[in-house]
Specification:
Helix content is about 40%, strand content about 15%. By secondary structure, the chain is of the alpha/beta class. Helix 3 packs across helix 5.
C-alpha cells in the first residue's frame, strides 16, 4: 500500500482515465482549458456531457462503496448512531480541480466519495482499524489528518482512505458527526479562497483553524446537536472537497 504522499506524487492518480486514447486526449485538452477558453459555464457543460458516458458505472461503484462502508460496521455497538454519505463529483467541482487548479482528470481521485460519520473519536478510530484489516485488498493509501500536520486551513481530525474499486479511485472519509458539521462551515472559507489569487488571508486562515479546533472537541455518544450560530452559513456544494 502506498503512503498518502506516494499516492499523490508517484501513483497513477486515476488509471481509469489512462485506459484509452479518447480519455487521454480529453484530459489533455481539459487541463489546458482548450475546449472553451475562459468560458467556465460552457466547459462545465462539456465536462458533464463527457462524464455522462460513465454515469451508470460510477453510480454502481458509488452504491458498492456504501455497501462496503455499511458492511464494515458488522455488529459494531455504535451501528445505530452511524451516518453514511456518498456522492458523485459535480461538473463544477471537476472544472475547479481539473482546469482552474490545473490537475486534469488524472489528478482527481474523488470522482466518487463517501463519508462515515460516527458519534465519537474513539468510534472513528475503531472503525478505521477494522476497515484497514478487512478491506486491505482495495486500499491504495491511508492518511490520518493530525493537528501537527494541519495545513493552512487547520483541517484535522479525520481519516482518509483512498480505495480502488472496479478500476476507479474512490475516497472514503471517516470522522465524527460533530467534525462533519464544523467542516460544512469551514468549507465555505476553503471554496472561496482555494483558487483565489494570493490564497486565503491571515484572518481567513485563523477563522478556519478556530472552526476545526472546535470541531475536534471531544463528544459524547448522545451528542447530536451542535450550536454553529457563531459561524457563517456554509455553501454545501461539495463538503467532501475539503481535504487539505
Amino acid at each position: 500500500m502506498l503512503s498518502f504522499t506516494q499516492f499523490i506524487t508517484e501513483g497513477p492518480l486515476n488509471p481509469f482515465f489512462k485506459n484509452n486514447k479518447k480519455d487521454a486526449a480529453f484530459n489533455k485538452k481539459l487541463a489546458a482549458d482548450q475546449f472553451a477558453p475562459g468560458n467556465e459555464k460552457k466547459t462545465i457543460q462539456i465536462i458533464k456531457d463527457y462524464m455522462n458516458q460513465y454515469g451508470k458505472k460510477f453510480e454502481q461503484i458509488r452504491m458498492k462503496l456504501e455497501k462496503i462502508a455499511k458492511g464494515n460496521l458488522g455488529n459494531n455497538k455504535v451501528r445505530a448512531g452511524v451516518k453514511i454519505l456518498s456522492r458523485l463529483k459535480s461538473g463544477k467541482s471537476i472544472h475547479d480541480k481539473a482546469v482552474k487548479r490545473g490537475k486534469g482528470m488524472l489528478g482527481i481521485g474523488d470522482f466518487i466519495a463517501g463519508a462515515v460519520l460516527l458519534p465519537t473519536l474513539d468510534d472513528a478510530r475503531e472503525y478505521v482499524k477494522d476497515f484497514r484489516r478487512k478491506q486491505r485488498g482495495i486500499i491504495v493509501a491511508y492518511e490520518e489528518k493530525t493537528k501537527p500536520e494541519a495545513g493552512e486551513f487547520g483541517y484535522y481530525g479525520s481519516h482518509h482512505l483512498d480505495l480502488l474499486i472496479d478500476g476507479v479511485y474512490v475516497e472514503l472519509q471517516i470522522m465524527t458527526k460533530k467534525l462533519w458539521k464544523f467542516k460544512e462551515v469551514g468549507h465555505e472559507i476553503y471554496t472561496d479562497t482555494r483558487s483565489k489569487k494570493g490564497g486565503p488571508s491571515a484572518a481567513e486562515k485563523t477563522k478556519s483553524r478556530k472552526i476545526f479546533g472546535q470541531g475536534n472537541q471531544p463528544t459524547n455518544r448522545f451528542e447530536e446537536c451542535v450550536d454553529l450560530t457563531e459561524w457563517v452559513e456554509a455553501d454545501l456544494t461539495d463538503i467532501f472537497e475539503l481535504n487539505e
